[in-house]
Amino acid sequence: MPIERRRLLTTALGATAAALTPLATAPSASGAPSAAWHRVPHRGIRPDDPAGRAPLANPRRGFRYEMSYNAVDLTSPWPNEQDHSPDSARTLDLLEREYGPGANLTQLYFYLWDFATSTIPPSALDNIESVLRGLRRKGYAAVLRFVYDDGVRENRRYTVQDIQRHIGQLAPVVARNSDVVAVWQAGFLGTWGEWHGSHYAHETYPDAVTAIMTSLVEALPPGLHTQVRYAEKRDMITNRAILDRIGFHNDYVTLGEGEWDYYVPGNPGWPSYLDVSRTRMMDGEMPWDKGQSTDPYAWSTVIPGVAAARRLQTLRFDSLSLVHNATVTVPAWKTAELTERQTVDALLPVSDGYFRGRDGRPVARTQFEYLRDHLGYRIEVREARHDLSAARRGRLPVQVDVVNRGFAAPKHPRPVRLVLLDADGRTVASTDTGADWRDWRPQGRAETGDDHSGPAVATVSGELAVPAGARGPHRVGLALPDPAFPGRGRAVRCANASVEWVEGVNVIAKVRLGG
């Protein structure tokens, strides 16, 4: 179908998809529709809602900052980071002031130059763990990379065995702190851990690549992914059993204008990038601009925001650096308006109410806001249903319809729970629904022939056991907690102005029991 005609069709569909998508029929105990079911519709976040233009800080997605530490003493190898503190929480405060708010991730480099051919001492491991604790205090997570060669000091002569030994030492630290790790990148090899220029060129030998990546994947905590920079490096791995944990990071996002951006249609790796990005973590950064760097690869042409959104959505990106190209492209994104019509015409997802005020009139956003809000997943509740008549028998059936308006499917496993809260916000009943939120797929990819009419509706169902004697006002909630760290891991908040947020629970309905 010609692109213009497809755009016209999807424009019409995009404007009406929310109204036309049929909702699941709420069944009675016999399976037939029941008038006893109560329906609670929900809406997305509008720009003139309270905090309607603020970032929705959900775990392991979105814009990110960048910070680097020498593991030996928590100094930085870079002259422009000498004001960074060993206290990573203070450094994040500084980055928020310098680059503006809107991120809840940071690229976190640890340089192991001093220990490249020896054992990492306990003091350095303690330093690494202290930085991760600082991220936890700030509510951030790390795009984590361990590196030897910084391009300033002489490259070290580490071996595959050195790397494997260090992975073994680092694995317990990462496991204890995996609530603040979004992804553990492959790193180690070459300058900046980008898999080029290592002394022994291990990154060019399939046996070495396979050995290193097998050790790394086996060290990953459950549910965590790793990433490599190039499709050709992933293709070198002969241990095919580990590939489902390996995504990509593009460290030179220029939409193909720069010679080091291989994430473009027509590149031999493009089919792999499309395939892998559906279910594995994807991260990226633009080059430094000439206001930040004198290096020859610096890039000072504005990277168009809408085209960038199409590429990032097509490749299901979860995160993107806010620090790179921060004096050229990012300011341009912050001032460039983006309308609902432009977004639909670009075959990009449109969140419910995102471009509309409460009076229904169009409101323009900025390209920066749109990217900030749609990188990774963006979960919206559309409708909740419950059958109070069954509560007299001690059961409360509940259904919730959700959609994912983001660029990517969720990548980390989480329980999907229905909960019952009393008037004081205490959980008095809870049930795991068995739903896998990683199946909540986003809209079709903008730069392919996918269906662009909108994301599919997923229905979450379960029954809550009503405590004996429960009476009065209660609230029904949808909870997406961190399964490994229930006491400190961050829960996922839905992108709804009509959904109250109570201690990590999305309140989807209010009920009165015992009446």
Structure notes:
- By secondary structure, the protein is of the alpha/beta class.
- The protein has 2 domains: 3-53 and 378-513; 62-325, Alpha-Beta Barrel (TIM Barrel), CATH 3.20.20.80.
- It has 11 helices and 20 strands.
- Strands 2, 3, 4, 5, 6, 7, 8, 9 and 10 form a 9-stranded parallel beta sheet that branches. Strands 16-15-18-20-19 form a 5-stranded antiparallel beta sheet, with no helix packed on it.
- It is globular.
- The model is unreliable at 1-33 (pLDDT under 50).
CA(first)-CA(last) distance? 58 Å
Low-confidence stretches: 1-33
Helix amount: 10-25%
Record field, number of beta strands: 20
If helices are DSSP runs of H or I spanning 4 or more residues, what is the number of helices?
11
Major beta sheet, specifics? 9 strands, parallel
Radius of gyration: 24 Å
CATH class of the largest domain: Alpha Beta
Rounded mean pLDDT is 92
Structural class by SSE content: alpha/beta
Strand residues, percent? 15-25%
Large-scale geometry = globular
CATH topology of the largest domain: TIM Barrel
What is the total number of structural domains? 2
CATH superfamily heading of the largest domain: Glycosidases
CATH architecture of the largest domain: Alpha-Beta Barrel
Architecture blueprint of SSEs:
Elements (H helix, E strand, L loop, with lengths): L2 H18 L16 E5 L20 E9 L17 H12 L3 E9 L10 H17 L2 E9 L10 H17 L4 E4 L3 E4 L14 H14 L6 E3 L2 H5 L10 E5 L19 H7 L5 E3 L20 H10 L4 E3 L7 H7 L1 E2 L1 H6 L19 E2 H8 L4 E9 L7 E10 L12 E5 L5 E6 L25 E8 L6 E8 L20 E3 L2 E9 L2
